[in-house]
Amino acid sequence: MTKVLRDKIITLLGAGFLGYYLSISLFHSLIRNNLVKILPPINDRHLPDIYVDIMGAAILAIFAYLLFNVVLEKRSFKLYKKSYLIAISLLIIAPLVIAGIFRVHAVSWVQKAEGTAPKEITIRTDREGDSLMFADGTSSASGVAKSIFFTEPLLDDFGKGIREMELKQVVSSEEQRMDSSYLTMWIRYEIDGKWYSKILSYGQGLFEEHVAGGRIAYYANPELENLLKKAFGESADINNYDRARVINSVTINRENGAEERKRFLTPEDFQILVDSLRPENLIHQDTEGVKRIKEALKEWVPQEETNIYGIELWQKGSDENMGQNFMVYDKRTRTLMFECAYYQVDLDDIVA
């Protein structure tokens, strides 16, 4: 092996490693953003990144080969025309081949993942009044938000509904049609031991997904809509919950508040809570208590307000971070709210 050939090999390897390093750091976003532009409207949250690295390594290695021939070897284009043309062709063809393989791999991976039944689906609504937040500082708050968690029997139905969504339109992010969504679905799959997630928003009769290339895809499926309506109907039934715990501004802001929030109501107290939702306890007027609770649902409950309580409800069979609903209780007026219905009840012994 001649010294020139050895130096050329070292240069190509060094350039390849440099290109690989730059593609995982400085130029990663640039290369990836251009790669995903060639994809159809698919979920791009878990696409293989190895092709970004290969692209950077290949381009810089070929470019280094050309520079070595021109600068160090000073090869004449006329004498080594074939060599130069091959290198220039590779500089064009190699990225196209890598991009093509990336497209095939990405599409097949997404189809394989979304072709299975989801392992977990959680839905959270984006409507005003579906969360209760207590201020724990001047610019932060914590509390509870309504969410729905699906158990095994419904996962297959929802998975089928998601697979059978009909693509209606694909637009750029600037042309987003949905000003505000009614709900957001977090769907988690598991394929070959790896997890894969998909996010869908729903509103105005359409399902919205941010897809590859910075675009937005809109889908429709009446059957999936009906499943959602059924799920929300069940979430409004107190009998679908089996645990509850109480929070307010004091527990949120207390140093040991995290420990206090782990304590659930006793089964006896939970039954009292369920029994309080009687038709005869319904409030049909806009009382002071109703107004106070409505205000609490619009704005953060201030730290000094200690009479507003959130009663977290946990869906049967769900973990502590999903499958939630809540009630709001105003101790001052003894008013309880659940699913936009207001009740005149005394729960002071439970929330104390």
Written description of the protein model:
There is one protein chain. The protein has 352 residues and is an alpha+beta fold. The chain folds into three domains: 3-115; 120-128 and 147-231, no CATH class; 236-344, no CATH class. The chain is 41% helix and 25% strand. The longest helix has 34 residues, at 81-114.
The strand order across the widest sheet is 4-1-6-7-8-9-5
Work out the helix count. 11
Gyration radius from CA atoms, angstroms: 29 Å
- Would you report the number of β strands? 14
Mean pLDDT: 85
Q: How far is it from the N-terminal to the C-terminal residue, by CA?
A: 86 Å
Number of domains: 3
Largest pleated sheet: 7 strands, antiparallel
Shape: elongated
Entry summary:
It contains 11 helices and 14 strands.
Question: Which short descriptors sum up this protein?
Answer:
single chain, 352 residues, alpha+beta, 7-stranded antiparallel sheet, 5-stranded antiparallel sheet, 11 helices, 41% helix, 25% strand
